[in-house]
């Protein structure tokens, strides 16, 4: 992917542009399956009984809101997009959850928190947008307590017929077309399949988690490998 400006600035501008339509498109284009994936991640995270959770690249706060099912006392969501955060804040206010979820502008590569501040860190469909993947994962590692955990939900590249062929056709042809029509942003929904193709999924991503210091890392494929939940421990 060729860029005229840094990836971070490009991603911020893109999500600011589509923030008003993001939730609708996200659920529509995934046919609502993304909601089930988040619930599955949270069900597994709940077993860890985290009291304080960090949600990196929180966007409009969908994962943070779902993560309340863990009975955590506090969830902090950070993002570099002011537009996405504003949509998230309005959702949280409407649901009366302001005492449980805090949303703030911050960079995943320079998290404004002290070491060992959280019991768990998580990110859904945002890790592939990190400008420096290892630096972002390293910051998430730094901010969780000893024996704390990281939870990453991200698109994968399915390998089995016919899921692989259907997935590739949808991602390269249908999704960008609908995304452009609704969001009026030519770049956003061509960036999505490109970023998924470039993302080091599977065992390659586990290698990045281990490089950041995480141990006992594992992959939990969902929906025939369309996406994966990655787990690691400090």
Give the distance, in angstroms, between the N- and C-terminal Cα atoms.
Answer: 33 Å
Mean pLDDT across every amino acid position: 93
Q: CATH homologous superfamily - what is it?
A: Vaccinia Virus protein VP39
Strand neighbour order, sheet with most strands: 3-2-1-4-5-7-6
Q: Structural class given helices, strands, pairing? A: alpha/beta
Topology:
Elements lengths: L6 H23 L3 H14 L5 E5 L5 H5 L7 E6 L2 H13 L6 E5 L12 E7 L8 H11 E12 L7 H21 L4 H11 L4 H10 L2 E8 L4 E7 L1
Parallel strand pairs: 1-2, 1-4, 2-3, 4-5
Antiparallel strand pairs: 5-7, 6-7
Helix pairs in contact: 1-4, 1-6, 5-8, 6-7
Brief rundown of the structure:
The chain contains eight helices and seven strands.
Description:
Helix content is 46%, strand content 21%. With 234 residues, it is of the alpha/beta class. Strands 3-2-1-4-5-7-6 form a seven-stranded mixed β-sheet, with helices on both faces. The radius of gyration is 17 Å and the shape is globular. 44% of the residues are buried.
Features:
Rossmann fold; 46% helix; 21% strand; globular
């Amino acid at each position: 992917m060729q860029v005229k400006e840094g990836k971070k600035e490009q991603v911020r501008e893109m999500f600011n542009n589509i923030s008003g339509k993001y939730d609708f498109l996200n659920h529509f284009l995934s046919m609502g399956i993304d909601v089930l994936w988040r619930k599955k991640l949270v069900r597994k995270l709940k077993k860890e009984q985290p009291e304080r959770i960090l949600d990196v690249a929180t966007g409009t706060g969908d994962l943070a809101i779902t993560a309340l099912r863990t009975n955590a006392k506090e969830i902090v969501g950070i993002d570099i997009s002011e537009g996405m955060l504003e949509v998230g804040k309005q959702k949280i206010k409407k649901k009366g959850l302001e005492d449980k979820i805090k949303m703030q502008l911050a960079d995943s590569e320079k998290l404004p928190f002290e070491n060992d501040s959280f019991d768990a860190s998580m990110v859904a469909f945002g890790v592939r947008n990190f400008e420096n993947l290892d630096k972002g994962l390293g910051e998430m590692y730094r901010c969780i307590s000893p024996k704390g955990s990281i939870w990453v939900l991200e698109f994968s590249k399915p390998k089995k017929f016919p899921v692989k062929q259907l997935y590739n056709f949808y991602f390269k042809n249908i999704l960008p077309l609908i995304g452009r029509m609704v969001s009026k942003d030519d770049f956003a929904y061509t960036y999505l399949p490109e970023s998924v193709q470039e993302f080091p999924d599977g065992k390659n991503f586990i290698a990045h988690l281990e490089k950041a210091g995480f141990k006992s890392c594992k992959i939990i494929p969902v929906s025939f490998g369309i996406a994966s939940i990655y787990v690691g421990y400090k």
